[in-house]
Amino acid sequence: MDRVAVGAIIDGKQFAAGLLADIKLEVESLKEKTGKTPGLAVVLVGADPASAVYVGSKHRQTIAAGMQSFKYELPADTSQDELMALIDRLNVDPEVHGILVQLPLPAHLDTHAVIQEINPDKDVDGFHVSNAGRLSTGQPALVPCTPVGCLMLLKDRLGSDLSGLHAVVIGKSNIVGKPMAQLLLAENCTVTVVHSRTKNTPELCRAADILVVAAGRPGLVRGDWIKPGAVVIDVGINRIEADGKSRIVGDVAFDEAGHAAAITPVPGGVGPMTIACLLSNTLTAFCRQHSVTID
Ligand code: GUN
Q: What pTM was computed for the model?
């Protein structure tokens, strides 16, 4: 099996850096235009180490983009009422244009109720049912960051017109699989969603011009699941132990994908896009709240 050629590797890190540079310029111009600064509030409940790393990174990149960052670190025993009350305050705070509650929440909290409490216009994760409904009915929505980033990388490779292409999405989560399928449908792709109960997954994948993999299973997609010339987007981030060392791998057996036209590596593919898309969503939310447009 041929190895992946350098030119076939989709460099998400570089793309995200360009996007963040554009966002920074847009923030400057919006500050001049409106006299206001876009602001993002991030809420972390408890001390999950991985979540703390993500929240720290979001905070730093928000500041680096010239926005205001409001970080709330609450104890693990925070009650549902206390968390709802904080969201209620952020919902009406004019300095806060985007709200993100880091998941997973401690088990005693009702995640669905917490997300539905967020003002949909400030829901920069795009998880509120109102935003999911808007996306699926073609109305202006805030769309989950990871699928937005995947679509940007796809268009960068394939051009802006994806119509008629067959896209297969592996995974049906509310955070990635379902919104990804909706975004691709909106681009006039023919979309198949496969998941753990699908009977003929390899065969369905072999029909894909675009293969987006968000299964959370290391190396699930083997080389012979990939059609020659397909574009493969690997959303998986899995930590595995190999040769006594720990490393991060995706859901695709990358070394078997040499016949793909293009593929995202893990790390360095989809991952870096997520925070850039979060800040892009925050700008979108700011512009809608202040009825301004980006030049
Ligand atoms: N935890 C892991 N990824 C995400 C995400 O995209 N948004 C939120 N809110 N929590 C997460």
A: 0.97
